[in-house]
Design a protein that fits this description.
640 residues; alpha+beta; six-stranded parallel β-sheet; six-stranded antiparallel β-sheet; 21 helices; 26 strands; globular; binds 5'-O-[(L-methionyl)-sulphamoyl]adenosine
């Protein structure tokens, strides 16, 4: 007996409510889970939330609530949305669950005993402002700049995972398992990264308290990624190892490098710990060409789209996104797709077919006559081929191609109806058998369609199933069995439109614009600093503020706060180092418009000369919020 097909999504941070990016990953997983069940596999499908760590600690602090209270609130958002989306996960795991804590602490201890986790003392000069250790050269530079007072001697203990030991075993494993990471181009990135050399990984923190305590050493909490990745072990049930793990491209490295290395270390303790079969990295939903992010105010929440039904949203995700690639989202594109494929395409074909069966045969479905002409036989053969090909694409997680194939076929059937002109056949009693053949073919094609689309649009598929006169659950059918010749039931069911055409113009005017400020952050419970002394306009006007566009961004090594950027000011390119690394990732910044203090004297930060400063709001904890600039304002524009 096969073990269950074990499928996972990433577990989501609880510092924000779900947006369509998170929803996409989970929908993709749910479609795969439903597909596998219809292939006859038992499935274990795991999703959940990642609740520890600095991001959550900070988000909670800003609202003056405990991290657990914040997590509970966001988890309710997730579980509510998942049920509205029709998700069929077997467990919603939270990293604050007691059994998960036991998994993490248990493995931490076992890997310590086996020598893969070791404690080391770090001693060195530490920059208070950057919250990071500095190298000797960096320390000299700071001293030369008169900033020696920022440096203190610090000795810190940290637990290391011996990642460096696994460089070679990982490369050997990759070579032996070409299906380990999909798509291939992402696998190549992973290999190149590992070939570049791996350093031991610090897997404990003393700077935060919101985490799972290191067993026997309460000063330390376990690093959030060691904690988070192990959720897949905690939630495995009897299904280990994972057959398929879905991740976004941004977190592939954690899953394709750290995760198998952790598992290899565990395997030495427990040989039953096999490695996952495939990590599938999908691309991102973008807004235009931009990343969707809260700070840009361009986040699309699924609630906005759910008014068209969860089936419609699920279909759109799968039909429009080629797994592995990025895709720009637009409301217009969303509605066009649904109108074309669901209202016109499938909906129209179903209503035409069923109403013809109603009108010409009083609702009785004709059996397949022995004599069929060439055109009908050709459509039948093609239908059988689609039945076989669709599950093959789906097995490769290529639902985009599978749906493309099916919709091509459905379009072809529209042409077939035009060619056969059933309304003409219906007038001639001598053509009764020919009409039966047409109606039977169309009915079979719709029956097959209901089965094939059931993982993607469970509600609509069941609806169609009932309208076709079928009883029971479409989800109980086998998707991989050719059932074209199945005997027909006597009559069709009650006919109703499958999908209401969307009035695009009306919806466009009603659709909420992407939100600017999520409700969760609408009322920050913060004290504000006192107003500074009054100045005259001329004093203010001395500050040359310009619109800039970030072209490149990278973290300054050894600093978790500083980011080095290339900024286009319209009239020149500048290098600017900003202390925004705790709030923004470099990839969040590229392409973003910023306000630059352009006539500020240059200053060296960690050895890099910074020519200007970015304007940002700041909360009491010093966390920056970059000032937003509309897309239409070009680099070089004066801000005044
Ligand atoms: N907590 C970690 C994952 C730990 S897994 C052991 C995390 N959480 S997240 O909430 O930030 O992101 C979860 C997933 O959502 C990631 O796979 C990420 O790629 C995905 N997405 C976030 N924004 C996205 C889009 N705009 N489009 C598609 N997926 C996106 O990372």
């Amino acid at each position: 007996m096969d073990k269950p097909f074990y499928l996972t999504t990433p577990i989501y941070y609880v510092n924000d409510r779900p947006h369509i990016g998170h929803t996409y990953t989970t929908v993709l997983a749910d479609v795969i889970a439903r597909f596998q069940r219809m292939m006859g596999r038992e499935v274990r499908f795991l999703t959940g939330t990642d609740e520890h760590g600095q991001k959550v600690e900070k988000a909670a602090a800003a609202r003056v609530i405990s991290p657990k209270a914040l997590a509970d609130e966001v988890v309710a958002n997730y579980t509510d949305l998942w049920s509205r989306m029709g998700m069929t996960h077997d467990r919603f795991i939270r990293t604050t669950d007691a059994d998960h804590r036991a998994t993490v602490q248990g493995w931490f201890e076992k890997l310590q005993a086996s020598g893969d986790i070791t404690k080391a003392t770090y001693k060195g000069l530490y920059s208070v402002s950057d919250e990071a250790f500095v190298t000797e050269t960096q320390a000299k530079e700071l001293q030369a700049q008169g900033l020696a007072h920022q440096l203190i001697e610090l000795e810190e203990e940290t637990y290391f995972f011996r990642l460096s030991k696994y460089e070679k075993p990982l490369l050997d494993f990759y070579a032996a398992h070409p299906e380990f990471v999909q798509p291939d181009f992402r696998f190549n990135e992973v290999k190149r990264f590992v070939e570049g050399g791996l350093q031991d990984l610090s897997i404990s923190r003393t700077s935060i308290t919101w985490g799972i305590p290191v067993p026997g050493d309460g000063k330390h909490v376990v690093y959030v990624w060691f904690d988070a990745l192990l959720n897949y072990l905690t939630g495995a049930g009897n299904a280990w190892p994972p057959d398929l793990q879905l991740v976004g491209k941004d977190i592939l490295r954690f899953h394709a490098v750290y995760w198998p290395a952790f598992l290899m270390a565990m395997q030495k303790v427990d040989p039953g710990i096999q490695l996952p079969t495939t990590i599938l990295a999908h691309g991102w939903w973008l807004m235009g060409e931009d990343k969707m992010s809260k700070s840009k105010g361009n986040v699309v929440r699924p609630d906005t789209l759910l008014r068209f039904g969860n089936d419609a949203l699920r279909f759109f995700f799968l039909r429009d996104m080629q797994v592995g690639h990025d895709r720009g989202f637009s409301f217009e594109g969303f509605m066009d797709r649904l109108n074309a494929d669901l209202a016109n395409g499938l909906g129209n074909l179903a209503s035409r077919t069923l109403s013809m069966i109603q009108r010409y045969r009083d609702g009785r479905i004709p059996a397949q006559p022995d004599s069929r002409d060439g055109a009908t036989r050709a459509k039948e053969d093609l239908g059988r081929a689609v039945c076989l090909q669709f599950p093959q694409f789906a097995r490769e997680n290529n639902f985009n191609a599978a749906l493309d194939l099916l919709w091509d076929y459905l379009r072809g059937l529209d042409g077939y109806i035009v060619e056969k002109q059933p309304w003409v056949l219906a007038k001639d009693p001598a053509k009764a058998e020919e009409l039966d053949a047409v109606l039977h073919l169309l009915w079979q094609a719709l029956r097959m369609t209901a089965i094939l689309v059931a993982p993607v649009m469970p509600g609509m598929a069941q609806d169609l199933w009932g309208q076709l006169g079928m009883t029971g659950q479409v989800a109980d059918q086998r998707i991989d069995q050719d059932s074209w010749a199945t005997p027909v039931p006597e009559r069709i069911g009650t006919v109703q439109p499958l999908f209401q055409r969307i009035d695009k113009e009306k919806e466009m005017s009603e659709l909420m614009p992407p939100e600017a400020t999520p409700a969760a952050e609408a009322k920050p419970a913060l004290d504000v600093p006192e107003l500074r002394e009054t100045i005259d306009y001329d004093t203010f006007a001395k500050t040359d503020l310009r619109v800039g566009k970030v072209l490149e961004a990278e973290r300054v090594p050894k600093s978790d706060k500083l980011i080095k950027m290339r900024v286009d000011l319209g009239f020149e390119l500048r290098t600017i180092v900003g202390g925004i690394g705790k709030a923004y990732a470099p990839e969040d910044l590229v392409g973003r418009r910023v306000v630059v203090v352009a006539n500020l004297a240059p200053r060296k930060l960690m050895g890099i000369e910074s020519h200007g400063m970015l304007l940002a709001a700041s909360d009491n904890a010093g966390l920056p919020y970059l000032v937003a600039v509309p897309e239409e304002a070009h680099p070089g524009f004066l801000v005044k």
